[in-house]
Amino acid sequence: MTFQEIISALQEFWARQGCVLHQPYDLEVGAGTFHPATFLRVLGPEPWKTAYVQPTRRPTDGRYGENPNRLQHYYQYQVILKPSPENIQDLYLDSLKKLGFDGRVHDIRFVEDDWESPTLGAWGLGWEVRLNGMEITQFTYFQEVGGVELSPVSVELTYGLERLAMYLQGVDSVFDLRWNATVTYGDVHHQTEIQFSKHNFELTDPKDIREVFGRWESQCKTLLSAGLPLPAYDYCVKTSHLFNLLDARGAVSVTERAGLIARVRDLAKQCAGAYRESREKLGHPLLPRSGTRVRS
Amino acid sequence: MKRTATQTDSRGGELLLEIGTEEIPSRVLPPALIELKEKAARMLSDARIPAERVETFATPRRLVVRATGVPTHQTTQVTEVTGPPRSAAYDAEGRPTAAAIGFAKAQGVSVETLRIKKTEKGDYVSVVQKQPSLPSSRILKGLLPELILSLGFPKMMRWNGQGVRFARPIRRILALLDGRVVPFHLAGLPSGNRSWGHRFMANRSFPVKSWDGYCRDLKRHHVILDPAEREQMIRQGLVKFTQHKRGCLAEDPDLLSQAVFLTEEPVVMLGGFDKKYLDLPPEVPITVMKEHQGYFPITKMNGTLLPYFLFVSNVRSKDSGLVRAGNERVIRARLEDARFYFEQDKKQTLNERAGQLGGIVFHQKLGSVQKKAERIKELAGALLRESGRGEQEMSRVEKAALLCKADLLTGMVREFPSLQGIVGREYARIQGEDPEVAEAIAEHYFPRNAEDQNPPKTLTGKYLTVADRLDTLVGFFGVDLPPSGSMDPYALRRQGLGLVHVLLDETFKGFSFAKAVEKAVGLYQSHSIRLTRDARAIVAALQPFMVQRMETFLNRQSRNLTGGYRADLADAVLCRPFDEPLDLYKRFAALRAIHNQPDFDPLIVAFKRASRILPAGFKGTVHPETFKEPVEKDLYQSFLGAEKQVGGLMMKRDYLQVLQVLSLLRRPIDNFFNAVMVMDKDPEVQKNRLALLQGITELFSRFGDFTRVTVEEQNKKEVKPQKQD
Question: Which ipTM was obtained for this model?
Answer without folding.
Answer: 0.95
